[in-house]
Batch of 2 targets.
Target 1
Amino acid sequence: MTFVGFAARNALRNKFRTALTVLGVAIAVVTFLLLRTAVASWTQAADFAARDRLVTRHKVTFIMSLPLRYVDAVRSEAPRLGIKGVTWASWFGGKDPAHDGEFFATMAVDAPTYFEEVPELVVAKDVLAAFKEDRSGAIVGDALAAKLGWKVGQRVTLESGIFPPEDPEKPWTFTVRGVYTATARNVDRSTFFFHWAYLNDGVAPVRKDQVGWLMSRVTDPARTADVGLAVDRLFDDKEIQTLSQDERAFNQSFLAGFSAVLGALDLVSVVILAIMMLVLGNTIAMGVRERTSEIATMRAIGFLPKHIALSVIGEACVLGAIGGGFGLAIAYPFIERGLGRFLEENMGAFFPYFRIPTPMAFAAFGLAIALAVLASILPARSAARMRVTEGLRRVA
Amino acid sequence: MTTNVDRTAEVLIRIRGVTKDYARGGEVVKVLEALDLDVNRGSFEALMGPSGSGKTTLLNLIAGLDSPTSGTIEIDGQRIDRMGEGALAKWRSNHVGFIFQSYNLMPVLTAVENVELPLLLTPVRASERRKRAETALRVVGLADRMSHYPRQLSGGQEQRVAIARAIVIDPVLLVADEPTGDLDRQSADDVLTLLDRLCKEMGKTILMVTHDPAAADRASLTHHLDKGRFRA
């Protein structure tokens, strides 16, 4: 027998209460991981952004568009600026009336260049060629095609609140020319890409030749910030100024719109941890109260207050470790095989890769133990300070 | 005081002028008043008296569980009344074996593990600890109950495990607070016989608090306490 083994057995002595506590901790761990995974997944696009890509948008807000001529302006200065390729895109904000409840990203892109500058989107050569040749062609993510049952060659009509068709009799109709997959797991596989030129054809004259943002690939990723400043200087004296950011910063500016939601998720995570600590603290305090006579006996036969305190803290560690481990055992299949897959397939635009980050799993397990230790400090202190004679008297 | 003891024997416990006061609701309650007591090494002595007479308080002082308000307590040549909490705990773990009325075994440990418990405080190796615990259980006649949990034992057996736990450290002094209080007559006799054996065969000094005259009769000397003083 060892002191650690003794502490472990004490932790497990009331099986029903231990089971409930472990379940409580496990649920807290699962909830915590769920929330943190949601935040991580949401911010993943920013975290895994390409280091060599620069996004240039309207200086005021990314909702406002830029003139198409800015593309030519950047291209003409590209060698001097250290840029090896430029493309552009516009947020279309489309949805399929046949699948009204499904949200997916729709983007009008420069068909000849976009997929070259965004190599993480993998499109077969023949598919890309077919797409480029068809002005109303579209390339969709494999996950989106699977979800909505779209096949190659299928005609799809989308509606857009941002770009209503100039002629209401001519809705935005596209032909699916193929699907793209992704080289990185953080890439949304539910986006709908089509020709910017087709969009430009169909909008009112006042909205023609406008692009949402420019994307430039720089030759030296270490100089992306400097290149961005140089690009912005090109338009300093123009009517519309630009703001160039590396892709990560650009993606983060999108996330800023959801900062309240992310903040709320952070807060709820903390609340979950606090509840977990209270559950553990209560269980440990009850266990200590019930064992007054045993603790007094241990003190009588020579155990020091520090031994008693360590024993109580040790019990808490055991509870926290079992609860944390159990929580991970539940969280992995639940999040990775169940909810995560569902979210990736159905809300890929928000959660392209909904999997538990490994450091987060370690953190959750560590927090379960650390908070158990924290929760046990008061009961451990009171047990260690117990007067032996009083503890023994309560027995007799 | 009933006397039946060899006055020439070596004194193990020497108490002089011990007083114990408690503050209770702003009042000072004198539990023990100027007690003197000598207990010889290897004797089996009993403390009797009505409830509230101070028996357990005196036993706690002798066992180093509490400190006197005044006076001196010397056990085996060591002044324990001057020791701090840590030193007292260490002293107890080396010198005193405890036997309680309610046995106070750890329900999550088997009989042999309960007996092993005090040895966790020593540098003895695990295998040696187990060997000593098994020996102690054989001494109390429970060789066949080593793997039993307290809930699987009778009251008499539990108390014998507690006695094994008390002797496993080979203490100079065994203190027993109503060791037969929760037992039937037969079990109580068995426990008292065991204590008597430990005293006579192993030379243990035993000080026992009891209400039971039959238990006190097994002791070589009985001290009667009343209102914090020894009754003549």
Target 2
Amino acid sequence: MWTRLAHPGHFLRWTQPVMPWLAGLSGLLLAVGLYLTWFVVPPDYQQGETVRIMYIHVPAAWLGVFFYGSMAISALGTLVWRHPLADVAQRAAAPVGAAFTLICLVTGSLWGKPMWGTYWVWDARLTSMLVLFLIYCGIIALWRTIEDPNRAARAIAILTLVGAVNLPIIKFSVNWWSTLHQPASIMRMGGSAIDPSMLYPLLEMILAFTVLGVTLHLAGMRTEILRRRVRTLTIREAERLDSGAAPAQGRSAAPLGRAVPGL
Amino acid sequence: MLGPHAGFILGAYAFTALVVGGLILHALRDHRAQARALAALQDGTGERP
């Protein structure tokens, strides 16, 4: 069943009716989360109103790491099973993950200035997040450099897996080194250190961002499948013109799946 | 209402809205462009839609 659902053709069919529902759910969850953030959550006793930045900073950080983790799993799918949808998933996740990592860096910087007195310090958590953003940029740039997506897939899958070593560094950097960034306060031994009046709205925003991110990822995957079909048909048409054949109108063409496996 | 650091708070939310809005807009436009290109090519080659 999984193989059937993961076939690019089937994937396009079953995701089509799901997309509007996911988009609507994202909008609803974001609206509820923003209402809680702006009108229900109390100011922090130390940070005051600036704590409201946390409700976008933490979900963005989570998504930056989440999408890289999903890319690493997709990279395994590309290298081990050579599944065409794994590469499509990886390629669609990169810009979404990079965008949320950038949001995390900028909002963190804007939160740091009034709280720490500086926009930036080279501490382990901040630096490892910057490295994650640079890895995302490198992967996106590499995809644009190699024209053939099938050739690019293997090289990028290896690069992605090498870059995955950064994920535990990001998570445990606040424990391994003395950092200006605070230690873990949601997922930690002994339970969350955040008061429930702030924790539940934060969890709601994390859920809202996650559903939004997954929606954008699925939309990106659908577009990427179409892009590869366009590329295959363009090459086929160019080859036809090159060989001096008659115009293609009305001629039977080989199925796309034969030209590009899985598409 | 937001105290002395209102600029930082509003700036953070505005930047997030800008990036997320850009992502959504790009996703919609890119999908529409690829769907249009594919339809045009399939018209030319007699491929199934």
